[in-house]
Design a protein that fits this description.
Elements (H helix, E strand, L loop, with lengths): L8 H22 L20 E2 L19 H11 L5 E3 L10 H7 L3 E6 L5 H17 L4 E8 L1 H4 L4 H14 L4 E6 H6 L1 H4 L5 E5 L11 H19 L4 E6 L15 H18 L2 E4 L9 H4 L30 H18 L4 H24 L3 H23 L9 H24 L7 H10 L9 H20 L4 H14 L1 H15 L6
Length: about 525
């Protein structure tokens, strides 16, 4: 005679829903999405007009380390690869070995928007600017403009008046056009101080990073509106779009979803606009930059048109799929579906279903870790959180006796997960701009939370309340954000099960038979 299922129908329905969600999600990512091709220009150069180049995409290399020096052979190799996809590169500094960029750009037939980094230190600024002016004059046929400062006003590292002095110095000494680059709002705000000292106005338009993030379907239209408004406000001066682009991975902001398909669509849409209106455009950026995750979260590292292996992330024509194959996540799900019934010694289809859901979740955790974790501490702490959640889920599903009388390690593990969930939610409220929704770490606990029947401590109830309130706040602030909704639902599934668990525990205590004395 078969044992009765130790799971409610509602819980089994949840597992079925989660497995179906994963199947639809991962399968959908393998289906090539039809996208408009880039502009058709017969007998014309089909490469990108210009891309921001930073050689810091290699493992462990960062401009934040003042001792970093880029070997010239790296620059040579990088520009050789970039010459296949672009006609021009933009740089941001002539320090850390980047003063060799014009030399190698000339070798590979590229032009350069040469950048001089302007920060708080006036002494360093003077050295940087003098070197940049000398390079611009030395490579006049290669350097097509000198960009004196990048988002200096946005970072509030110089006043408009001080910045104007640097611009005027460059304008009187350099033999190439002079410009300054900043986000469009700051350029328009301080145009009175900037316009007399530049030959070109270089504005950054990044629909993903706007205060009101733009969905991909309206992103190019937004760029067109801002570019048109800038022309009306700035008058007849030439305008360059110094940075525009779309991330391929990271946190969703309202309706703005990072993805490979969306990145391809945005680049193609902007190329078509640039060709139609003869715009001067630079895309950010040449390569994915893992070091930027330290400043901007996961999304900061994935704006490149090439990955860190210098491979194109998408074509400029034809359909584009988010992933190449379904087999890796499907294999993980099949492994979970096979292993959990063996561990539980309960070969029933709901257990197989839960195993598949946990397998999909484990694969999601791994993919998230690869793109998001920035250092050994995050691999250890966040990786351990995901593993603990999986172990707790397996223990509660496989050992019915644990549900009311758990071993000490299981009570500690579940308490830790509730604490970590509360902390993660608080961080999303107080400092959430660059923080991911780490739903994959806590989904295993959400799948089995109703199986917990031991008593809930006052501290756990406090953590639960904090987590739920913060998750609701985060989601309601971005009600159209699918990632925020999944995060809220996962938090709610965990926290709202706790009162029921306490009630179940109390009922079990009342009906438990008394042992003979």
């Amino acid at each position: 005679m078969k044992r009765p299922l130790p799971f409610s129908r509602a819980l089994v329905a949840l597992w079925l829903l989660v497995v179906a969600f994963f199947v639809v999600w991962y399968h959908g990512e393998t289906v090539p999405q039809p996208l408009p091709d880039g502009p058709a220009r017969p007998n014309a150069d089909a490469r990108l007009p210009c891309v921001s180049y930073s050689p810091y995409f290699r493992a462990g290399v960062t401009p934040l380390d003042p001792n970093t020096q880029i070997p010239p052979e790296w620059i040579d190799l990088d520009l050789q690869a970039l010459a296949k996809i672009t006609r021009c590169v933009r740089t941001y500094s002539v320090d850390q070995g980047l003063d060799r960029v014009p030399e190698f750009a000339a070798r590979h037939g590229l032009t350069v928007w040469l950048g001089a980094w302007i920060g708080r230190d006036d002494k360093k600024n003077a050295q940087e600017l003098a070197r940049a002016i000398a390079l611009a004059n030395q490579y006049r046929g290669v350097v097509t403009r000198l960009i004196v400062g990048n988002e200096v006003l946005l970072r509030r590292e110089q006043t408009p008046e001080n910045l104007a002095r640097y611009l005027e110095q460059a304008k009187t000494q350099a033999q190439v056009p002079i410009t300054y680059a900043d986000v469009w709002e700051f350029w328009l705000r301080y145009r009175g101080a900037l316009l007399p000292h530049v030959d070109v106005a270089t504005i950054h338009i990044l629909p993903y990073w706007e205060d009101r993030p733009q969905p991909i379907d309206s992103a190019a239209e937004h760029l067109f509106r801002i570019r048109t408004m800038a022309r009306q406000v700035l008058g007849a001066i030439p305008i360059a779009i110094g940075e525009t682009g779309w991330p391929s991975a990271g946190k969703q902001r309202e309706g703005a979803v990072p993805s490979r398909v969306n990145q391809a669509k945005y680049v193609r849409d902007v190329l078509s606009l640039a060709a139609t209106f003869n715009w001067d455009v630079n895309f950010i950026e040449s390569h994915d930059q893992p070091w930027k995750r330290a400043l901007e979260g996961t999304v900061g590292g994935y704006w490149g048109v090439l990955n860190t292996a210098q491979e194109p992330k998408f074509p400029l024509t034809g359909p584009v799929a988010e992933r190449d194959t379904l087999w890796p996540p499907l294999t993980a799900a099949l492994m979970g579906a096979v292993l959990l019934p063996l561990i539980a010694s309960l070969r029933r289809w709901p257990v197989t279903l839960l195993g598949a859901a946990l397998g999909f979740t484990a694969f999601w955790q791994w993919e998230h870790a690869v793109v998001a974790y920035r250092n050994a501490w995050e691999w250890g702490a966040l990786g351990a959180t995901g593993v603990v959640a999986l172990v707790v889920a397996v223990a509660l599903a496989a050992r019915p006796t644990y549900r009311a009388t758990p071993p000490d390690w299981l009570t500690v593990a579940t308490s830790y997960l509730l604490f970590a969930l509360a902390v993660a939610n608080v961080w999303l409220v107080v400092d959430g701009r660059y923080r991911d929704y780490a739903t994959c770490l806590y989904l295993p606990l959400a799948l089995v939370a109703p199986l917990r029947h031991w008593s809930v401590t006052l501290t756990e109830r406090l953590w639960s309340a904090i987590a739920l309130l913060c998750a609701a706040f985060v989601w309601l602030k971005e009600a159209m954000n699918g990632q925020a909704l999944l995060w809220f639902l996962t938090t709610a599934a965990i926290t709202l099960s706790l009162p029921r668990a306490r009630a179940a525990s109390s009922q079990a205590t009342r009906v438990a038979p008394t042992a003979p004395q």
